[in-house]
């Protein structure tokens, strides 16, 4: 499964999550002030495609269908959370798939995840763009997933 959620988005001492608190405040203010405009700008950056792509249009539609107050609450919960302290509790083998260009989760975060999980893990950085490569680049993601499934069956 592609890595769709970071365990910490905020930069911290000895940790790079990709965002400063001021960045997040700007994001939250944009959601509050003009939700539709925020959706239109956020969707192509998150998905990793141009505004005309089917994937971006579909993701935009799902964002537009969400109530702005709920979207703000979800964004605050996601972007302000920190689950680094429980990574060691994940002991099942993990295949971590990462886009080479991901607005929300830099490759360094994936490496931190890989190093701090409680079980074995494999990281594959794909030549896809965006936080949702399963939408923007299924031609890249599907073969990778199939290869990992075959690996698990053979192991």
From TrEMBL:
Domain of life: Eukaryota
SUPFAM superfamilies: alpha/beta-Hydrolases
InterPro entries given in the database record: AB_hydrolase_fold
Family from the record: Belongs to the AB hydrolase superfamily.
Protein name: Probable esterase KAI2
Organism in which the protein naturally occurs: Prunus avium
């Amino acid at each position: 499964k592609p890595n769709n959620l970071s365990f910490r988005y905020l930069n911290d001492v000895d940790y790079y999550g990709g965002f400063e608190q001021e960045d997040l405040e700007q994001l939250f203010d944009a959601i509050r002030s003009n939700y539709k405009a925020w959706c239109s700008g956020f969707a192509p950056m998150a998905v990793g495609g141009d505004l005309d792509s089917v994937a971006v249009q579909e993701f935009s539609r799902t964002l537009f269908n969400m109530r702005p107050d709920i979207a703000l609450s979800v964004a605050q919960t996601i972007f302000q959370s920190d689950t680094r302290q429980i990574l060691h509790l994940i002991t099942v083998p993990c295949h971590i798939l990462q886009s080479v260009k991901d607005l929300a989760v830099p490759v360094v975060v994936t490496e931190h995840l890989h190093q701090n999980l409680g079980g074995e893990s494999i990281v594959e950085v794909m030549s896809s763009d965006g936080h949702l490569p399963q939408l923007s680049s299924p031609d890249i993601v599907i073969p990778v997933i199939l290869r990992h499934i075959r690996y698990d069956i053979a192991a």
